[in-house]
Design goal:
single chain, 231 residues, alpha/beta, eight-stranded mixed beta sheet, 10 helices
Length: 231
């Protein structure tokens, strides 16, 4: 079984569409919505939506704020032998869980889907292309949808408890261990909302600059202050 883990934080505008999308997924996955202390109506809306779908194997789990903390809390609750970490604004095909499980049965240890943005602007097409190219080189980010065998996730200690760059560091650790990701040729469409808010080119350049600073040894805490509370 695959367990789909979705960290939430102040997603009241998107939570109903998220639960509707999750209800269309094939393969009867376990779905864990991990709230990190939302200050809006995310939790009440999510619980109400799930109560209207009693056949859906889904529930809300509470955790401390922070994507790493929330994802790790979801992994602790997961019953599946495959974990799939999905951002709340990520849109996947209904058969994506089946394709992930098929890839794992064929030997994949971890991997991601093929990233696209919901913005057709050439800069966003370029951004998605670069993300997909990095995945071939062993670096996967959360908006690409990260799947991994549960035993391997636990063996690696899960996502490092960092305020930002947890997916980057997670990829680097697996890369150093020579465990390569597989990219499944199934799209994941993610929102370009943060790019729209800050400017497409500026956001792309900022992200590249912050990754470079991290590689040079700047702490995740310092980088989080530069990035701001947009998660």
């Amino acid at each position: 079984m695959i367990s789909i883990i979705v960290p939430l934080y102040n997603e009241e505008k998107n939570i109903l569409s998220l639960t509707e999308r999750l209800a269309t997924l094939r393969g009867e996955p376990q779905i864990l919505l991990i709230d990190g202390g939302s200050a809006d109506d995310t939790v009440s809306l999510a619980q109400a939506a799930l109560s209207r779908r009693p056949l859906l194997n889904a529930r809300v789990v509470f955790a401390q704020k922070g994507r790493a903390k929330q994802c790790n809390a979801g992994a602790d609750e997961a019953e599946g032998d495959v974990l799939f970490f999905l951002h709340a604004d990520g849109v996947i095909e209904p058969d994506a869980p089946l394709l992930i499980e098929r890839a794992v049965r064929s030997g994949a240890e971890w991997g991601c889907l093929r990233l696209r943005f919901d913005d057709p602007h050439p800069l966003m097409t370029l951004c998605a292309y670069m993300s997909n190219l990095r995945a071939r080189r062993g670096i996967v980010f959360g908006d690409q949808g990260i799947f991994i065998r549960a035993p391997l996730f636990r063996l690696t200690g899960g996502f490092p408890d960092m305020p930002i760059m947890e997916d980057y560091e997670f990829s680097l650790r697996l890369k150093r261990a020579r465990v390569s990701p597989i990219r499944i040729n199934s799209p994941i469409i993610t929102s370009a909302r943060r790019f729209a808010a800050r400017g497409r080119l500026r956001t792309m350049l900022d992200m590249a600059r912050l990754r470079a600073l991290y590689r040079r040894g700047v702490s995740a805490e310092e980088i989080a202050l530069m990035y701001g509370d947009v998660r």
